[in-house]
Specification:
Strands 1-2-3-5-4 form a 5-stranded antiparallel sheet. The chain is built from 17 helices and 5 strands. 60% of the residues lie in helices and 5% in strands. Helix 4 packs across helix 5 and helix 4 runs parallel beside helix 11. Bound molecules: iron/sulfur cluster. The site of iron/sulfur cluster (SF4) has 11 residues, from helix 12, helix 16 and helix 17.
Length: 361
Amino acid sequence: MTPAQDMNWSLEDMARYPFLSEVKDYVREEGPSIEELLEGDGWGPVRRRGKERVMEALEDGQVKIKSMRDEIDQENELFSYLISKMLVSSIGDDFLIRRYSLGEVERIVKELAREEKDEKLLNIAEELDIRSRKEDEDFAVFFAHFLENTERLRSPDWKLVNQDLKDGDVYLKKKKFIRLLKEKVFSSIHGDLPRPVSDIILKTFDRQMEEIREVLEDTRTELVDLDLGEVEDELFPPCIKNLLAAQKEGHNLSHEARFALTAFLRKVGLSEEEIISYFQEAPDFDRELASYQIEHIIGEISGTEYTPPGCALMRTNGICIDPDSLCEQEWMNHPLTYYSFKKRKEEESEGEDEEKEEDEG
Ligand code: SF4
């Protein structure tokens, strides 16, 4: 049985996991002053990387892992995290804050999966206030901390009754343990934003904010104003097909699942009545309640039409179900991207068939 040992975090660890508590002390003791960071010539690469992190999160749905050769690279990476938080906070847009947080979390999960020593994962869990220890091949997590951090994970895989529970601990395999850490990392990054920003920060980043806003609007529009032609449900991504099947079989969908499903169906072009026709196949269908919920999501009641969640959030919510090989592509970051890709492929192959028929005719 191995509990977490006290750990001295290296600079490289802090750069990879900037939520570690030692980071604050390091920044205070070793970091540049805010003026130097914002205006100093030597800190240009840090400011550029800070903006790059935000752009990567917006455009690709994840911040890329940066290779760090020496301490200078490690410091730059660490301080660039501060810059990206300043940029995101200066804009203060909810969609940006969520997308940026998810982008950082996706990077961190990859880093965690690459860790060779389980001891390090235990120490990171401790930093995140998750009590855990290693027992044989499993990670034993204090059940109250398991419950606290799986609230949003609705798949049966995460229900307490389906866990290996002994003496108040839940036993998890490494992959699932990292998934649990991911939940906590997300709430710690997302919950820390937006940070207060000063006038000097707003003034310094005026141009960068403008550039980020442009990409932000493009990303938002991409997800909001799609024209995908005729709806073909056989081309829906696995997550949506599974949610529809679960709905049809009368399973009680979580709020997140119903939201994702309705917002997706709306974005691919279905009317309220058509969405209801999908929902009314459920045995416990309540037309009035369904209409109310759908009208809320499609903006009839709230005035805001909601955008369906991307893959990262679907995963966080435990409703990225049975992802297939297309889902595993590096650029796949949204169920709508999956669907529009499939639609495009189908149109291309129809076009080729027509050309062939013409040639043969
Ligand atoms: S990867 Fe994305 S598109 Fe694929 S199943 Fe998961 S959420 Fe759906």
